[in-house]
Amino acid sequence: REQMSALHCIKKTRIQQISYRAAVKRLAKKGEKSVYPIIYEWLDKEMRDIARRAKVVLDRTKKQTFSEEMLRFILESKGHSIF
Prior knowledge:
mainly alpha
């Protein structure tokens, strides 16, 4: 529930910085393993391709979750800044 509310907040505010960082921290704290489907809910369609490519990189390194660095990379590669 907490995850969804944080991510819903992001979706509503078009990736607002504080909400984004709070969501990342909540997901990381819970050690969320099925982050991709949740993140796809609020990623713009044009950003999903980058997320898929990031997933391939993560799968190769046997990581199952988005790190904050990976999310930052995905967002900043589309011109969003989280700071």
